[in-house]
Please model this.
Amino acid sequence: MNSNYGWTFDTSDKMLFYDGTDWTERNFANGDTYIFSSHFLSENLGWVAGSFGKIYKYENGNWILENGNTIDSFWSIYVVDPTHGWTGHQSIFRYNGSEWLEEFDNDGLITSVFFTDIHHGWAIAMTGYPTDQSYIYKYNGENWYLEHVVPEVYMHGIFFTEPTNGWAVGELGTILKYNGLDWVQQPSITYERLEDVFFLDQNHGWICGNYGTILYYDGSEWIIQNSGTYSNLVDIHFTDSLTGWAVGERTILYTNTGGNIITGIDDYPDIDASTQFLVYPNPSRDFINLSFDLQSFSMVSLKLYSLSGQVIIDRPVEYTSAGNNELKFDIRSLSKGIYICSLKTGDGETTKKIVKH
Model:
């Protein structure tokens, strides 16, 4: 994205194009694909990746299916030039200009990929319960190798300004900085889940995350900026030190003051938990039932947290029909106490307190 054009997608077939003045809706090529990541080299050349292993190339107004031979989802895609790109799920795939081929069999699920050039790249992978940790893999131009392990934290976003200066962000407000040799945890001013990070240079950076969280880095410390929304934000991008966008759950935010004043282009409230999300029996000793309503066919993910923020149960993303839906959790192995259940759908995110007897 630059000041003259940009793209954003929701997780269904809605696509918005920015022409330098306004966002206009355009139809995506295939409505049965959830889009999780996109990367454009120009207004007329880009790639999107999503559910069921689908990768589409956009070229001069046409969408071309380039990959669709797996049931796994691609959560991140990065393209350096027309003949070099990378994406991944349980493995990392490389693009050679005509097809996507498996390149590296990694541990965990790839959540973010970033390259500074065709010789320097990084990928974040996260494991599930009970290890609940993340791996940062590095590409040296020939091979992938494990560079860093982040214990008990899921990492989500990664960004580099150059091969010796990078950042990664994740759960519980976790911020890591790469100095060319090691990943070092940085002081954080939030405990919210952080989704994405973007830097113009070493002195201008932004992070976005849950509940409208936006942080700004001024070269020495992170500062909270008021986003004016409680929507979860998943991507952030700036074209200069003043002009930027953050996007999330049915939300596009814009600033021309470096984030000091943010305008909401489109903002939808979170789910009404009192009417759409029920937990019963609560308290419970063995099982809990979760009942929720959806307006349309949607992705659903469920997590159970301890009060300290540790992920106890991580229910994989499922595709759920419109109307009333119910899921069941086995909590017999949990210690007595209070837990937080988080429900995330295409309509938003909400939480409920659960008591285990």
About this structure: The longest helix spans residues 273-276. The helical segments are 273-276. The two ends are 51 Å apart (CA to CA). The mean pLDDT is 83.
